[in-house]
Automatic annotation (TrEMBL):
It comes from Streptomyces coeruleoprunus. Keywords: Oxidoreductase. It holds the Pfam family Aldedh. Residues 9-477 form the Aldehyde dehydrogenase domain. It comes from the Bacteria. The keyword Transcription does not apply. This is Aldehyde dehydrogenase family protein. InterPro entries: Ald_DH/histidinol_DH (IPR016161), Ald_DH_C (IPR016163), Ald_DH_N (IPR016162), Aldehyde_DH_dom (IPR015590).
Length: 483
């Protein structure tokens, strides 16, 4: 495996590092260990490629993105196997939520490349004055490409997450440097080969990797980078934000989450349990949108806790290659230990472990049992901090005002959820929640709706046409329309 820089596959200056299968603890492959100098060279290659790519006709960019989507679909089986092996995702998730979503995003932004970039503004009558005679001024607001975008991606979805950054950035005429998470970068190199075959010109897409932080830091700090699009932890996002602030770079940050699920007495409990239970299974809880903080109205609190505990106990875990497996491993031994540390902390804080809490005896792999904590209080760290694993904490509430106050009492604000049979109340509560999105009686997402967070959950919005806005700058064009 080599770096992809300036349209060439380049030998890494610092050799390679091992990528480990979280389920088997065996080596999946070797990823390139780039030097900071090579990271900066990738940014320079993107800078050199930008003028030509930004001037291509939208139809040409659309054709490249469409071809990429078709090529991803053509080899979807091999791509899904690789994603499963390096990320630990279950077979169904790797196939349907990683590779298939990546192809869908390239198709979506092939269409996006053709969306209008000009918005006509009302003409303005300017009276005579020091600037000249009276005139009628016409104006356009035009979206232009930002320039070179550094795409720093997360480990929980090595296909859909990079695709969600690369495709809209290219559609708008930007060039990119991709720095994947060190845990599962091999899929991103497979995506680079797809884009090369699809006809992306040299330097338009570049991929560099490293097991440490210095490669990503070199990319973000490069003077050739105009914008950073990052998905990951709030702690890392803060460091990136400091660098971007010094150089006044554009930012798109999708950071941590501690989603509150507000379940009222009149809710459909079966639907609420299925939705909240997705924390236990979907990416083994390694997803920032998970409803990990459950606020249960006292009338249904005990029934909800019992139903969630039963649901967690029915989920089959083990080898993600087995089609029957629903709960696979987490990404690494270090992350498994971190999650287990939080469960023990919950016990020390006074929470009651009603499901899980013990390491599954699968022999190999970095597994965490789906865990439910009840008897929680608002000040507990397990309630306030992002655990990023299959752990759900339950708190009781009395009335609507208390539920909203508890939900808004935290550092994050990515996606919250409301379950209630009273639709008017559900939408009223949604309007009071300080989060970038609210699911009403569902955990599903509309993939044209804006995605992003309040507070420490991020900066900016993407998905759908909002991603095209995120990867563009607005330019005003004004002209005299007559006197």
């Amino acid at each position: 495996m080599r770096l992809f820089v300036g349209g060439a596959w380049v030998e890494p200056e610092r050799g390679h590092y091992e990528v480990v299968n979280p389920a088997t603890e065996e080596v999946v492959g070797l990823a390139p260990e780039a030097s900071p100098a090579q990271a900066r060279e990738a940014a320079r290659a993107a800078r050199e490629a930008f003028p030509a790519w930004s001037r291509t006709r939208p139809e040409e960019r659309a054709e490249v993105l469409d071809r990429a989507a078709a090529l991803i679909a053509r080899d979807a089986g091999a791509h899904a196997r690789l994603a499963r092996e390096e990320s630990g995702a279950t077979a169904a998730t790797a196939r349907g939520m990683q590779v298939a979503v990546a192809a869908a995003r390239f198709r979506r932004y092939a269409r996006g490349a053709l969306e209008p970039v000009e918005q006509a503004l009302p003409p303005q009558l300017t009276p005579a004055g020091p600037m000249g005679p009276a005139s009628l001024l016409g104006a356009l607001a035009v979206r232009r490409p930002v320039g070179v975008v550094a795409c720093v991606t997360s480990y929980n979805n090595p296909w859909a997450n990079p695709a969600g950054k690369i495709a809209p950035a290219l559609a708008m005429g930007n060039t990119v440097v991709v720095k994947p998470a060190p845990q599962d970068p091999l899929s991103v190199y497979a995506l680079a080969r797809v884009l090369e075959e699809a006809g992306v010109p040299p330097g338009v897409v570049n991929v560099v990797t490293g097991s440490g932080a210095d490669v990503g830091e070199a990319v973000v700090a490069s003077p050739d980078v105009d914008m950073v699009s990052f998905t990951g932890s709030t702690a890392v996002g803060r460091r990136i934000g400091e660098v971007c602030g010094r150089d006044v770079k554009r930012q798109l940050m999708e950071l941590g989450g501690k989603g509150a699920a507000l379940v009222f007495d009149d809710a459909d409990l079966d639907a609420a349990v299925r939705g909240i239970g997705s924390t236990f299974s979907f990416y083994s809880g390694q997803i920032c949108t998970a409803p990990t903080r459950v606020l249960a109205q006292r009338g249904i609190h005990d029934r909800l806790v019992d139903a969630l505990a039963a649901y967690a106990g029915r989920l089959p875990g083990g080898d993600p290659a087995d089609p029957a497996t629903v709960v696979g491993p987490v990404i690494s031994a270090a992350h498994r230990d971190r999650i287990e540390g939080y469960v023990e902390l919950g016990r020390e804080e006074g929470a009651r472990v009603v499901a899980g809490g013990e390491r599954p005896a699968y022999g190999k792999g970095f597994h965490v049992a789906p865990t439910l904590l009840a008897g929680c209080a608002p000040g507990m760290r397990v309630v306030r901090e992002e655990i990023f694993g299959p752990v759900v904490a339950v708190l009781p509430f009395g009335d609507e005002d208390e539920a909203v106050a508890l939900a808004n009492d935290g550092d994050y604000g990515l996606i919250d959820y409301v379950w209630s049979g009273d639709v008017a109340r559900a939408f009223r509560v949604a309007g009071a929640l300080r989060s970038g999105g609210v699911g009403v009686n569902t955990v599903a997402r509309n993939m044209e709706a804006p995605f992003g967070g309040f507070r420490r959950s991020g900066v900016g919005r993407d998905v759908g046409s909002y991603a095209l806005y995120a990867y563009s700058e607005l330019q005003a064009v004004v002209w005299p329309g007559g006197r």
